[in-house]
Design a protein that fits this description.
Blueprint: H1 5-22, E1 32-36, H2 43-46, E2 52-58, H3 59-62, E3 75-79, E4 93-96, H4 97-106, E5 110-116, H5 128-143, E6 153-156, H6 168-185, E7 190-197, E8 206-207, E9 220-224, H7 247-261, E10 266-272, H8 293-307, E11 314-317, E12 321-322, E13 335-336, E14 339-340, H9 342-354, E15 357-365, E16 370-377, E17 383-390, E18 398-403, E19 407-413, E20 433-438, E21 443-448
Parallel strand pairs: 1-2, 1-11, 2-5, 5-6, 6-7, 7-8, 7-9, 9-10, 10-11, 12-13
Antiparallel strand pairs: 3-4, 13-14, 15-16, 16-17, 17-21, 18-20, 19-21
Length: 449
């Protein structure tokens, strides 16, 4: 019997609505993260930027610099230096993960620990299967969400393929055994793979096929991707929407692999970012090219925005602080010597503006032109924000006529300083159309409908 068109349409609507409701886009506060680094990370300084932090947690610190040594959680290695009286003048004795991670949590962060075993060569483990299993179990048994609740997830390695440290097969040995220990230590702890890459891997990430057949060993697929326009020696980066670079395409390849090989697994991007330094390159690499502080601010914000359209669950920015060193990955901080750069204020504004919102619709997306994304409040669907910008890679401006979706409450341009005036006056016509001035710095439009 032929089903009436109205009933068929209703069933299709319910099916698609249910699918969307089961897997909605994350709220931006559950999407945005930053990379920190143990005792160097000032959690109170970066708390206004996001609520997710990824820590580079060194394996060596937990085993007193000797592979296979027993752990002493919550205590790690002894750090700092002693003066003539024997007193520590830097970190007071052993690192206490309970103190460290608890403080981060008090400042509002959820912690993902990247367990960095990469410094141990494969053939230097006394008994790699036993050692990695025991370490995973000890870490999860103390730090996991069922115990002292210090972390909610743990990564099995950072970039173990770097310098040809671990082949894919060698990494699988660690993955299987450390994950077994982590599972036994705390089944509630999310297990994240090391950085993997679809297609031809870059030499730092493992090829993503390393995860084939290993479904029980991980919960989350971990990607690293940078918006490189060129590789060595310039390491020049570009704006994220640039169709000449592989940034978004490479991320999509990882997502496509997940869909075909590991449906149901989450995908996190745990490293992306942009170098901006006030100094000229040194003699070691005079051809290195950074971006300006303005570009870094624009590209960070727009990266979070365009990546919110992808099927990623999280994105962590690299890095939190830098010492203004003009070299690759050494000028990626949103602070410089712990002083906010323009990107700090831009990211703070993004988080404070959209933290309670999720991507709802892409209104316009034109290569080399206007982008307009719609975000909706997670609790009140009548409250929406449009974010609009130019993705041209130039300093040009464009007056874009937009048909507005409701009553315009306010409009603000992305800030570059703490007390910068960012209010923008928009002349709305009777038919709710308006000419909106677009630049490379996003403009936020709040509506009630």
């Amino acid at each position: 019997m032929r089903m009436p068109n109205i009933l068929l349409g209703l069933l299709v609507f319910l099916a698609t609505s249910t699918a969307f409701a089961a897997d909605p886009k994350p709220l931006m506060r559950d999407f945005m993260g930053i990379n920190g680094h143990t005792i160097q990370f000032k959690s109170d300084l970066y708390a206004p930027l996001c609520r997710l932090v990824r820590d580079y947690h060194p394996y060596f610190w937990d085993v007193d610099n000797k592979p296979g040594n027993p752990t002493h959680f919550p205590l790690g290695i002894e750090l700092g230096w002693k003066d003539k009286t024997g007193k520590f003048r830097d970190w007071p004795g052993r690192v206490d993960w309970n103190v460290l991670y608890t403080q981060w949590q008090k400042d509002g962060f959820e912690v993902d620990a990247c367990l960095q075993f990469d410094g141990v060569k494969f053939d230097k483990w006394p008994d790699i299967e036993k050692n990695t299993y025991e370490y995973g179990k000890a870490f999860a048994s103390y730090c996991g969400p069922s115990h002292h609740k210090l972390v909610t997830s743990a990564e099995i390695g950072n970039e173990p393929a770097g310098n040809k440290q671990y082949s894919a097969e060698q990494y699988k040995v660690v993955l299987r055994n450390m994950s077994r220990g982590l599972r036994e230590g705390d089944p509630k702890l999310k297990i994240v793979s090391c950085a993997v890459q679809a297609g031809k891997a870059d030499g730092y990430c493992e090829p993503i096929d390393v995860l084939k057949g290993e479904d029980k060993s991980y919960d989350v697929i971990n990607l690293h991707q940078y918006a490189f326009l060129s590789a060595w020696p310039t390491y020049e980066r570009s704006y994220p929407e640039n169709e000449k670079i592989e940034f978004l395409r490479q991320l999509q390849k990882g997502l496509d692999w997940r869909r075909g090989n590991a449906p149901g697994k989450q995908v996190w991007l745990t490293e992306f970012g942009y170098d901006s330094s006030t100094k000229k390159p040194d003699a070691k690499n005079p051809q290195w090219k950074g971006c300006t502080d303005l570009q870094q601010a624009q590209w960070i914000v727009r990266s979070f925005l365009v990546m919110s359209e992808l099927d990623l669950q999280r994105a962590y920015l690299y890095f939190f602080d830098d010492n203004d060193q003009p070299s690759v990955h050494a000028a990626s901080g949103v602070t410089r010597h712990l002083e906010p750069k323009p990107s700090y204020w831009a990211m703070r504004h993004l988080y404070q503006s959209l933290g309670d919102y999720r991507l709802n619709n892409v209104i316009e997306k034109k290569a080399g032109g206007a982008y307009v994304f719609e975000f909706v409040n997670g609790k009140k669907a009548s409250q929406i924000v449009w974010v609009a910008w130019l993705a041209s890679g130039t300093s040009e401006e464009l007056e874009k006529e937009l048909k507005l979706p409701g009553k315009l409450i306010k409009a603000e341009r992305m800030p570059l300083a703490e007390n910068e005036k960012i209010t923008v006056t928009i002349d709305v016509q009777m038919n709710r159309s308006a000419k909106v001035p677009l630049t490379e710095s996003p403009i936020y439009l709040w509506f009630d409908r």
